[in-house]
Design brief:
This protein is mainly alpha-helical and about 300 residues long. The protein has two domains: about 50-265, f41 fragment of flagellin, N-terminal domain, CATH 1.20.1330; about 275-305. Helices cover about 65% and strands about 5% of the residues. It is built from eight helices and six strands; from the N terminus they run αααββββββααααα. It has helices at about 5-30, 45-100, 105-125, 180-185, 200-210, 215-270, 270-295, 300-305; strands at about 130, 130-135, 145, 155, 165-170, 175. The two termini are about 15 Å apart.
Amino acid sequence: MLPPISGSTQSYLDQLSQMQTQMETLQQQVTSGYRLQNPGDDPSAVGAIGSVQTLIGQLVQNNTNLGQLQTELQTGDGALQQAIQAIDSAASLASQSSSLMSNPAQQAALLQQAQGILQTLVNISATTADGRYIFSGDLDQQALYQVDSTQPTGVMQLATATSTRTVTDAAGSPIWTAKTATDIFDARNPDGTPAPQNVFAAVNSLITALQANDITGAVNSISSIKAAGDYLNQQLGQYGIAESRVTDTLSKQNTLLVSEQAQLSGLRDTDVASAALQLNQLQVQQQAALTSKAKMSQISLFDFLA
């Protein structure tokens, strides 16, 4: 039976064990990049880390949503600019009609151009971004209009859409609720009749006059076409305001995200330089302890253990 290990030897072995444990912990911290390997390493930091991680997740998701909205708004902005150009062309045609409708060939050319403008506007109402019809509200997988000369406004509404999708910032404040093609191109009075600013109806009034060789009607359509153009410009302005809001919100949230990520790093991440220095110091101390013990006089195994 071996004699018990002396107190000094046990203390020496305990110190070596502690050094080894500390070195293993530091090595894990350096390798993983995290100073906390489990909740027990710093229980007081666990709650704070969880809260910061939750906020970071919300900010990242909000930024993703805002990025998608930014693309949608930019696409809508461009589409409305094209629509305004089309309406300007319609106004120009209406102005030319009084002097050109006496010539059948020229009248036919005017009519063809006006019909082309209406088709362009319908196409614009079906603009897509990221696989969605951006002017179709909640029915974003289908277009809402098609050209139909039998209809009073020259188009047929294929579906009635509402828009309930609202994008908010990190505080929950709404930034934008998508507009539908009905809101933008097919404005209606409370009784359901086309409003004065109805874009489709304005262009169709020119088409109807050209088909009937009605010079007076063609000239009179100018006022409704201009009203439609003014309305489109108002809609474009709202898109511009929303784009500015998104840009500002993204900037603020990115600043907050960087701050929260820095806070998380401070709570969770390893100070690699400091950990590496401590690890090196412990390795030196361990080697020194082993070397010192090896130099001690050892007569026998029992003497070593004593």
